[in-house]
Amino acid sequence: MHPKLSRVAHRLLCCGGHGSGDDLTDDRSRSIRWVFSLRELRSATNSFNYDNKIGEGSIGSVYWGQVWDGSQIAVKKLKNARNGTETEFASEVETLGRVRHKNLLSIRGYCADGPERILVYDYMPNASLYAHLHGTHSSECLLDWRRRTFIAIGAARAISYLHHHVTPPIIHGSIKSTNVLLDSDFQAHVGDFGLTKLISDEMDHDKITGENQRGYHAPEYVMFGNPTTGCDIYSFGIILLELASGRKPVSQKMYGIRNWMLPLAKEGRYDEIADSKLNDKYSESELKRVVLIGLACTHKEPEKRLTMLQVLSLLKGESKEMLSRLENEDLFKPDSTASSVEMSTPEGSTDRILKDDQGLAGA
């Protein structure tokens, strides 16, 4: 191991976070074994066995592993890592390692051995938000309205922390439901933040905006490839629309969730937006609030999108005045010429909504 790596690891173990207060509390409760050897990670993942693979994306493959003390880890083998030295990689990881928040999936350790560049995280036993909305766990219907609101607020806290309370601010660049991980209590942990710093500049832009990201990227990012905080906000807005409707960002017919939902919201047809898997058990006012926030985040004009601080405040119900202004925006005024009668609605969409406000207010 390069001697600089040990010094980097020591600084990481000694340095504190940036957080303070309820929404910004850093998280130093997890155990950290900062530097892992390639031999250890091979042993933990059964030589990166296919049966251990739990995720695959444009940035890398993720494997489940178990280390010598019995604790479970998630091991991400990076693809197309920058061709820098081990020391340069360690320095970049050091920056990310200092960013710790209770709703971020912070880096637990890393390995830089020859060409291999690997990151180690805590394993999240309830998989990802994607798995529960669209994937392997969707039929189990484990995400009731209260859990969905907790997930929305937790993820908003994490992204707000990156944008407003880290110096310099961190643009996530890959916000999507597969990167919202859920622990044993279904608390949200946003992963993969800042990893663009570790990926080669030569990585194909089409791979980043490809199938795994379809529907999440802001129009300006698809066109110009320049990530901004506004792009993050757009992506988070799509996640809010997913939570409300249970729909994927893009349908099989390539119809975007925002384009489907906006006409329904303009006409106040929120009962047709609600995910049928909720079985009518949600708050009408809270679902409407989540939809309005999600649509405002995905405004086609970046300068008209909310900030993450505003999003967090709105989700927590802290500003009725701000919500009222949002509801009266031109974006949500009924269009006299356009009708959503021909728009398809989710299979089994509900006709009735419960009136109890119990989710967002208690999160």
What's the quick description here?
The chain is α+β, with helices and mostly antiparallel strands and 363 residues long. 35% of the residues lie in helices and 10% in strands.
Report what the structure shows.
The protein is of the alpha+beta class. It has two domains: 3-122, Phosphorylase Kinase, domain 1 (2-Layer Sandwich), CATH 3.30.200.20; 129-362, Transferase(Phosphotransferase), domain 1, CATH 1.10.510.10. Helices cover 35% and strands 10% of the residues. It has helices spanning 3-14, 38-44, 86-97, 129-133, 145-164, 205-208, 219-224, 229-245, 257-266, 270-273, 284-297, 308-315, 320-327, and strands spanning 53-56, 60-66, 72-78, 107-113, 116-122, 180-182, 188-190. A five-stranded antiparallel sheet has the order 1-2-3-5-4, with helices on both faces. It has a two-stranded antiparallel ribbon with strand order 6-7. A hairpin with a 3-residue loop joins strand 1 (53-56) and strand 2 (60-66). Helix 1 runs parallel beside helix 3. It is globular and about 65 Å long. The N and C termini lie far apart (45 Å).
